[in-house]
Amino acid sequence: xxxxxxxxxxxxxxxxxxxxxxxxxxxxxxxxxxxxxxxxxxxxxxxxxxxxxxxxxxxxxxxxxxxxxxxxxxxxxxxxxxxxxxxxxxxxxxxxxxxxxxxxxxxxxxxxxxxxxxxxxxxxxxxxxxxxxxxxxxxxxxxxxxxxxxxxxxxxxxxxxxxxxxxxxxxxxxxxxxxxxxxxxxxxxxxxxxxxxxxxxxxxxxxxxxxxxxxxxxxxxxxxxxxxxxxxxxxxxxxxxxxxxxxxxxxxxxxxxxxxxxxxxxxxxxxxxxxxxxxxxxxxxxxxxxxxxxxxxxxxxxxxxxxxxxxxxxxxxxxxxxxxxxxxxxxxxxxxxxxxxxxxxxxxxxxxxxxxxxxxxxxxxxxxxxxxxxxxxxxxxxxxxxxxxxxxxxxxxxxxxxxxx
Length: 405
Hints:
- By secondary structure, this protein is an alpha/beta fold.
- It is built from 14 helices and 16 strands.
- The strands form four sheets. The chain has a seven-stranded parallel β-sheet with strand order 10-13-14-9-8-15-16, sandwiched between helices.
């Protein structure tokens, strides 16, 4: 993101938003735990009640994803997040250890800046709102320009419910006219205490380089290893469900598959039986012109969040490939056996070369290092030996522990 000085109009708008949020944050510090919990409960309930309407609004505005899956995302970001945090103590004394004599007190930070993406607009706004309210912080949202209407509507729903339950006025604010200059002005504003940034690599790097505490979530590139002891039907089912959920826009979905050599054919057969299509080497070469932006070396915006059928039709309409295999492609992933290991934010995965158990951790690490080394790896196995592979993956620097399926 360009680090230019914002113009005076942008600076004035940023100052006004932060001043309102800062005033609310100061009042919010005086609330007790019961007051906070009532506010969070009301906000979560209001967001969950509008999960379908917000999902439809997001799909219509962005042209990305699947309506039904966005409903699930919105429910998760409200009901499930609320269930997880509802009993947490976030006011005053939260922990007292007589053995060490240490006492922990929770204090709010103040004004939080929430930057939200086009891929998960409404759900991200709602869960960031809930965690800000739970911790007595005010939050300002800066949404993607291409998901502005649905994002700000989600913020409005949560805000009005929170205020009706007793939250301070202006505890949730949102930018009406987003721009890079506005985002920069808010990220570098002296009264913004924390940045929660979800978006592309450049945005997350800008948040970390702003001089403020920041928690960033950028592109993912999750590899998965299918061990020879795995339940093949379950592994394939889980991978396809994950890759097609909301047309593959969850960054934690499986972007690359590594299979033990002994079961590679069985895995491929199972994938094909579930309506997945394997691209041939000649097809991989031409599909890259459609799905990969050569300048950014990332997925083209033309295919992000689109269905496998849409991508197949786009390729066929351009006359690049004409294969009968695409006739069977419905909602399953389009799979390539070659290509770059980048994050396809769409129903596509790379199927890498076969590997014995001993080489699996290195292959998964080597693949994901190409992009986003902070993400996890996954292993499908029923063998105790897979725990060794899991440990070696989770010991990688800058990564989160891998999942054992």
